[in-house]
Please model this.
Amino acid sequence: MPKTINRREFLTDSALSGAGILLGKNLIGCSSAGASGISSFDIMKEVRKYRKIDSNAHINPSTGDAGSLINNADMLGIEKMLISVPTETGSLSPQMFIENNDKVIRAVKKYPDRLTGKVTVNPLYQKESLEEINRCVNEGLVGLKVFTQVKINDPLYFPVIEKFIDLKMIIQMHGECQLGVGGYRMKYDINERPNASIPEDFADIARRYPEGMFQFAHIGGGGDVEYSCKIIKDHPNIFVDISGSNNEDRLVDFCLEYLGEGRILFGTDGSYYQAVSSIMSSGTTESQKKKIFFDNFFNILKTGGYDFT
Model:
């Protein structure tokens, strides 16, 4: 079991593994020294030895291009990426989310061995959203990725969630949990994103639909990881992806302590090196690394009938 860590320990000493991956093949001083007293460690070889599924990836929202994703996947040994084009605007119309999903479908067809995709909808348009889910699943998409138009526990989402429960596919939602100072809990983007889903919203919907699978997106994005984990820890149908650019030290260890090894998902959200280094620098065992990088999300995909082995 990982040792108990406090907030100060959690937020310190995060640079080593990320810097090593960014610098490339050799990281000085990370293996037994030779005659010179200085040694090198092939960190990229170590990174590539793990199979990986990126559970949170995005193609270019304007052009639909996925070339940069494939380049990064090749560099880091990512076998499969789950792509989407969610849109932040509150006025996401059916025409817009259909166009976004078409970009995903085209990218998946262009790179079928490397990409698969998630549907994005806006439940404010109930009929159109349900029709679009049917269309996209028939085109091979394997989950849902939604943003902040409506909170995840809003009744408008209930028919959408029930649809994905029937499909046995995961529902990924943008998660928010801002840090507090001195015991004061900050308001959650009340001006910019009033409908952002917070940990309490995820816990609420997980209680209502224990048979659903919910993915709390980018827990590594700079929010209050400690608070988030404590709120959702008793809901085994909530998974977290570790994507995010903040790369807090011991992020994975903290999630492991509260959520267990089966509920942590590798994801990048474009922050490739931060996500990889969060796992590589953690205190996880070889078996746990394999589960987080690949097995956990692969088992979710297989539950919905998608198997790329």
Q: What stands out?
A: DSSP finds twelve helices and ten strands in the chain. The CA atoms of residues 2 and 257 lie 6 Å apart. The beta strands are 26-28, 40-42, 53-58, 80-84, 115-117, 143-146, 170-174, 214-217, 238-241, 264-265. Confidence is low (pLDDT under 50) at residues 5-17, 27-33.
